[in-house]
Fold each of these.
Amino acid sequence: MSTDHFADDPRTHLERMLAGDLYIADDPEITRRQRQAMRLTTRYQAAYVENPAEARRILAELLACAGEDIDVRPPLHVDYGSNISIGARTFVNYNLTALDVARITIGEDCQIGPGVQLLTPTHPVEPQPRRDKLEAALPITIGDNVWLGGGAIVCPGVSIGDNAVIGAGAVVTKDIPADVVAVGNPARPVRTL
């Protein structure tokens, strides 16, 4: 039997989501925003090769901030796009999945390898709230001049410091300081730069 977790909360699920609180993703505005992001990413992929100026315009419409001289190779998968900022001169290789229920900030001069996943959503560990479809999210922050190796996964709430290198396939579950190389699952610093 499902519990009304929001009986005393007059906010919409979108308002709860944007506040970083538990919500259920059945809000019509959430669905509208997700579909708009899908439309824009589809148009972006089509324009990337044939019309770079149009692709840049679409990317600027999709993202909260698209810094100068960024290169984001499609396909690109996002929940909303509007919660993602990418700093100037950053290169994003093929197949980035950036689930931006919460804010994702990528600094300047970063290198993002192919197949990287930036995952802000969280779900309750307890079975019943998860069965009731509750979710939330925690922001991800990636500093300047960071290199995320191919297939790296960055989990909710993680910050990665400036100049850090994250090895291919690493799973980043906790904050990584600046100026280190971190590898493994879970990712751990193995060298100072």
Amino acid sequence: MGIIRWGIIGCGDVTERKSGPAYNKTPGFKLQAVMRRDEARAADYAKRHNVPKYYTDADALISDPEVDAVYIATPPDTHKYYALKVALQGKPCCIEKPMAPDYASCVEIVEAFKTKKLPLFVAYYRRSLPRFLQVKQWLDDNEIGDLRHIHWHLTKQPSPVDISGTYNWRTDAQIAKAGYFDDLASHGLDLFIYFFGDITAANGISLNQQGLYTAHDAVAGSWLHQSGITGTGTWNFGAAKREDKVVIYGSKGQIEFAVFDELPLVLIKGDERNERVIEHPENIQLYHVQNMREHLLGNSTHPSTGITATRTAWVMDKITGAVKL
């Protein structure tokens, strides 16, 4: 295929270190153009990251013949708008997570790319990280026996931005009804689907306890994987301290890890306790981006596609009560 030239729509904070540099570090990929409505910031990003072109108009980037594929890194409420334009241009696409604010929008995006027979990826990059592939390997090797249950507890204190009332799109109910749950919990739930298979039933409670912003800040949920494994989760963003702990229970032991914090992975069997420390790469989306290259070459199938992300969106909406079916 030669060099695949990428354009980024929305070169904000997430692209500075997490994702943007990974495109130039991946053999066969090149970051060709970026777009941001603020021209000075777009030009600054392009200069610092050695990107040949910058735009203030997304349509110009999408239609640029020197851009072969597009990465959408804007807030979720514009993902569908831009994704449908990319599909019409006939270009592969990667969308930041969550794929869209609701399940119905995800279905619409997937259908657009399916109709055009175009690859569609979503940046649930934990499916590609060595840290979580080690957990999957323990599970695949039956290290803790028959799998029974998974529980995730995530809490954090309100940030100074939350307390000040300064606008933050992540806590704007018009963009993310469940606030940080939409932004953060999607990562873990998507990972659990990767570990244990599709979720066939889910429900939960979602509400606003603090009154600091319009989005919900407290969520509790339960779900069932098609494999018969049960799951529960609690997410609260107004607690006294930060906690991030996942426990997978099996018939012969358990596995403990954090979704966000780089704590040791722990494998417990009887009196035996095995800890593994696996660091993330400098650019956390590096392996995700490299896997897109392998997918486009036909060497493998990427673990995070529009189809898998849509399944995650359905679970999120079921837990928050946004969908009933």
Amino acid sequence: MKSTLVNMVGVLVGVALIMGGILAFVNNMTKEPIQLQAEKTLQDGIKAVMMSDNLKVTATDTITQSFDSKDYEFIVHKTVDEKGGTLGAAVETTTLGFGGDLKVLVGFNPKGEILGYTLLEHAETPGLGAKADAWFQKDGKGCIIGKDPKQPLQVKKDTGNDADVDAITASTITTRAFLKAVNQAYTVYMQANQEVVSQEEAQVENI
């Protein structure tokens, strides 16, 4: 084949088509396993944040709500125990951290107290902001487990109040973002609960 412009373009187009086909094939082969793994990770996360291995997700609701003039999407996984008793819900919440989106799954009991949390996605600095995965847990320095965010959780250094949350060392921005995500999840969860209660009361009145 002569080294002409037409021949060179033809070869490049051919290579591009072959590589595109290979990538499409690989993507199709791996799509389902990746999706299944993501579903398993979420299911395990719900059990972890709700502090129960024996639970059932009875409903999954997607709620869009505005905070600070910006729309956020929340996914609320309502749960019950093996006897059908209400455990509360696990709420997926996302906000902007230091390095990118910070996606958190937070478990609340029926009173709105925090049962647990796990990070589903983050782009925080390894060794610093990434510590959020453990920092706010029960044995962490900034423990939020058992707290009721009726009064929004805040960083102690921002308020000077010892009752507030210790920031991750050298990662105050990540801490603020994490607490914002939790506070917003709490607001959405409690409002959703109130709507359910109001609907049930209206049904009783109509009987």
Amino acid sequence: MSRSRASRADVIHASRGDVVVIGAGVIGLSSAACLLEAGYRVRVCAQSLPPALTSCVAAAFWYPFNVFPEQRVRVWADTSYRVFTELARVPETGVRVAPALELLPGPSAPPSWSAVIPDYRAVGPSSLPAGYRDGFAFSSFVIETPIYLPWLLRRVIELGGELETRTLASLDDAPACDLLVNCAGLGSGALVGDAAVVPVRGQLVRVENTGVERVTVDEHGPGGAITYIVPRSRDVVLGGTAERGSTRLEPDSEATAQILARCRALEPRLARARVLGVDVGLRPCRDELRLELERGRSGAPVLHNYGHGGAGVTLSWGCARELVELADATLGRSLRAHSLEGARRCSGRAGR
């Protein structure tokens, strides 16, 4: 019986096609998992694997930060929210539901993505830290990337995905396949010559958890500073910075001091929390996230899925599900075209 199941799976894979996914961050692995679940044969090619990735550094909580276009973001965020709802029921994923509070300096309309959250609600000044006049409370998800990324990698392997560590100078260096999926994040700039991709440096501080349970975020700090407090099972992640164009990976001691000061002002229980470490990552930002088909100059068609900025985890499953739809449509057309061409050739030979 087990041999019969394997045989049927091979038939499904063969009919779907071979896919190469470039990149093993949260976008690449989520895309690979969804493609495998849809019946494709998938090989992931990446320069590095978790934990040596920006995705593993992220203070990941569900929150569409610094990513466009707005209407498509809402759809992707909605899908991901529903998937994380299911994953939060599985302890080994490192995903859990967490109360969240967004702070605002004054009255503001809810963002478009708030419509996907059942309990999104306004909070008045009396329930906010001093100096804030408006805010919104909602249920979010904390995704502990040191747990989640290894789990996601295992999921890809369990589904039959192959992994290959290699550096690609261009898409032409990728292994032969029916469809190439570019999830190279910041590396996509050089890989496909996209000057619209820019790094946005993020620095965060990890401290011991002294009883904090709520995610708190303020995007409207002085000089454009973003402040966030993300409690995890063993620590609290404090942020942060959003330095557009900076590629500096060394921690900045002044930034660390500023992050600690801003976060402690919002959450007094952090006042004596011991600092455990400082991390830096480069967000792959673009004016608009790129999720689209491009006909390659030669060889396989290419699906691009990059430019998620500070919302890679938040949008990961929504983008991956849409990517599978694009793959189905693309390879479906390719297979039909191939069959028609074969039929014409056979017809021509028969006529002779």
